[in-house]
Q: What sequence folds into this?
């Protein structure tokens, strides 16, 4: 097992490195640079700026420097400062030394911010939104799927699956404005836009207080984002439960005279949830990395805005940082699923 | 419902038995599809939408880019009745069936023309991803060994990209790299074509380039399972070439499930295009796309809800239709799979 995980981790690093190389090459091939303006800056200014950010080096040198800054941990006596050049994401104090790791560099467009600052302030919002969307997906999807499977081919089944089709058919940009119009504009129950949590956060991503002031902003976006996933969970739960119900051990339990409720809860449901649990990781990754449109619709100050503007601004460190971070999230989620499978199903071996 | 349809097919009258011929699996599946009311309804709606898109100039009362600035945000009476908030500051007019937008363009005409892009994406997206995915996946699955290993590792890397971000990056890359080139090169003619299509071409390429990985994995899996079958072995023993085995023996056997999977994926292509247009990276204005219309409308949601609700409804109806048809197709081709995503 340990060997398998190590091998997968090494492979994961290789994948993320390839992703970084492709992104780096692609974004530098796009014509124009971070200091291209409609009213051109004087040549010397651009030259100095490029020199300051090391953009005048050959591309391979820039790439290696970037990787070095991000990947190689440092042990220094220097405490974290407000300098834009050495803002590390992870700072651990070890006696008189500091272990500092992952410097994603300064943002070219927002002159006084670093990519790590954007991560610290904006990423938690996207994580909060993604987590709540996942909760919505489970709260709607699980009961729907279970009901549909237990009453297969009944009205309930068709109704439940119609709700599922509704869920996948109504994207955020359709549901978002309609929700805002009903609950914010007409009924005035919820705010139309904004977010209820500000940095600093607890444990990097939790809001300091989870009260109505936080949730009133989150309800609509979490629902809009999570509905599509709830449909996926409902279908998966239904299919998996239907399969499990027909297994021999369920018939055996019934023959032994086990009560129907116990059969459902202890024998059927527990086993049928395996595929559902395993999809949660990638689903969470997809939700967190896919909040862009939701954030735009509901005016949420998450990561989304930064990425889209960073591409138009050729804000290289922000583009690289976002794609790398999200790639790590996606790859890690898949690794966790594979490991999890091994624990749940002893028939799978990793040798 | 499924139970009754089964018993209907199960019992054959004497007259039917006499003329009963063997049926191909596909014909059988289509019969099942036609019996699925939701799927047929979806299919009919899609047909109507395609006709609407094809004959847009005949159906739309105005050109999509005709602005009448004096008619800004004017709406017909029935729209005002549905959205009472608009009463008081919106001028009533019967000139526009769904109202006019913020620069005085007919909403209905723009929705009709906007169908073109969504429906073209619904055709081209699956086509590109099917072609690339099937070719890639079958080569990988058929040859196996290090070829398979290398090809699947490439897919792994592409999987690690967050899709929307990657499409945005690719689109920007295409738009800017191909913008200022001298005539005569391929890139130049591509850019010209894109401009003539209102920016659609690069959207197709961007979406197609990011969507084939799933198909490649699926095709590979299918090839791997079919390759073990006796008829492939038989073909190999009589000395058939790999290409012949691929095209004559394997492909016909794997295409069905792949096409069904691709039909189920159509709504995601439509959403992706709408998302891109929504964040302003889709078609070039004034070409209408439902996504960009929703984005425009969302800014005036409080005052003119009709400008966002109607394009949103159009998008939702199209998504419904494709989802119903896709579900029906899957049920018809593989009844055991009902309900599996």
A:
């Amino acid at each position: 097992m340990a060997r398998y995980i190590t091998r997968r981790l090494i492979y994961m690093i290789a994948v993320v490195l390839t992703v970084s190389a492709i992104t780096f090459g692609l974004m530098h091939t796009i014509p124009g640079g971070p200091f291209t303006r409609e009213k051109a800056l004087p040549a010397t200014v651009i030259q100095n700026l490029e020199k300051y950010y090391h953009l005048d080096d050959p591309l391979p040198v820039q790439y290696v420097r970037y990787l070095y800054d991000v990947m190689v941990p440092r042990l220094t006596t220097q405490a974290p400062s407000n300098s834009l050049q050495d803002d590390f994401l992870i700072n651990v104090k070890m006696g008189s030394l500091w272990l500092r790791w992952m410097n994603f560099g300064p943002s070219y467009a927002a002159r006084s911010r670093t990519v790590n600052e954007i991560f610290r302030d904006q990423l938690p919002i996207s994580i909060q939104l993604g987590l709540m969307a996942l909760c919505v997906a489970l709260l709607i999807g699980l009961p729907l799927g279970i009901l549909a499977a237990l009453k297969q081919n009944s009205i309930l089944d068709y109704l439940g699956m119609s709700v599922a089709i509704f869920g996948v058919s109504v994207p955020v940009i359709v549901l978002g404005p309609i929700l805002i119009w009903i609950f914010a504009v007409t009924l005035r129950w919820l705010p139309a836009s904004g977010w209820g949590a500000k940095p600093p956060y607890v444990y990097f991503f939790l809001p300091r207080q989870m009260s109505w002031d936080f949730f009133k902003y989150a309800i609509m976006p979490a629902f809009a984002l999570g509905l599509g996933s709830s449909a996926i969970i409902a279908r998966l739960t239904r299919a998996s439960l239907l399969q499990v119900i027909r297994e021999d051990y369920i018939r055996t339990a019934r023959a032994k005279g086990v009560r129907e409720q116990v059969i459902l809860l202890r024998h059927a449901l527990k086993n049928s949830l395996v595929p559902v649990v395993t999809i949660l990781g990638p689903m969470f990754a997809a939700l967190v990395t896919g909040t862009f449109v939701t954030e735009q619709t509901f005016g949420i100050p998450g990561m989304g805005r930064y990425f889209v503007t960073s591409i138009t601004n050729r804000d290289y460190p922000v583009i690289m940082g976002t794609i790398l971070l999200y790639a790590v999230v996606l790859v890690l989620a898949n690794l966790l699923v594979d490991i999890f499978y091994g624990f749940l199903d002893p028939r799978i071996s990793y040798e | 419902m499924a139970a009754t349809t089964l018993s209907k097919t199960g019992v054959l009258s004497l007259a039917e038995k006499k003329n009963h011929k063997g049926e191909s699996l596909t014909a059988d599946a289509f019969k099942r599809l036609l019996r699925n009311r939701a799927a047929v309804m979806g299919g009919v709606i899609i047909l109507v939408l395609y006709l609407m898109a094809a004959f847009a100039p005949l159906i739309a009362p105005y050109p999509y880019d005709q602005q009448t600035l004096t008619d800004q945000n004017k709406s017909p009476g029935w729209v005002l009745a549905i959205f009472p908030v608009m009463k008081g500051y919106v001028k009533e007019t019967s000139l526009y069936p769904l109202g006019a937008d913020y620069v005085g363009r007919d909403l209905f005409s723009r929705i009709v023309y906007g169908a073109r892009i969504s429906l073209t994406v619904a055709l081209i997206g699956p086509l590109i991803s099917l072609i690339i995915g099937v070719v890639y996946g079958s080569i990988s699955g058929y040859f196996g060994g290090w070829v398979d290993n290398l090809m699947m590792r490439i897919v792994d890397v592409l999987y690690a990209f967050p899709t929307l971000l990657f499409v945005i990056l690719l689109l920007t890359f295409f738009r800017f790299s191909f913008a200022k080139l001298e005539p005569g090169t391929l890139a130049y003619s591509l850019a010209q074509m894109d401009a003539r299509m209102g920016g659609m071409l690069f959207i197709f390429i961007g979406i197609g380039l990011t969507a084939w990985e799933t198909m490649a994995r699926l095709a590979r899996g299918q090839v791997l399972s079919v390759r073990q079958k006796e008829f492939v072995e038989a073909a190999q023993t009589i000395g058939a070439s790999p290409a012949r085995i691929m095209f004559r023996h394997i492909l016909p056997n794997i295409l069905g499930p792949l096409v069904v999977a691709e039909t189920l994926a159509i709504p995601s292509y439509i959403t992706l295009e709408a998302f891109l247009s929504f964040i302003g990276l889709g078609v070039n204005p004034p070409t209408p796309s439902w996504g960009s219309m929703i984005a425009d409308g969302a800014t005036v949601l409080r005052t003119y809800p009709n400008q966002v609700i109607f394009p949103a409804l159009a998008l939702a109806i199209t998504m419904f239709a494709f989802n119903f048809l896709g579900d029906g197709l899957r049920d018809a081709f593989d009844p055991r799979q009902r309900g599996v995503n």
Summary: Residues 278 and 341 of chain A are 7 Å apart (CA to CA). Strands of chain A lie at 74-76, 90-94, 97-101. Chain A has two domains: 2-101, 115-312. Chain A is about 65% helix and 5% strand.
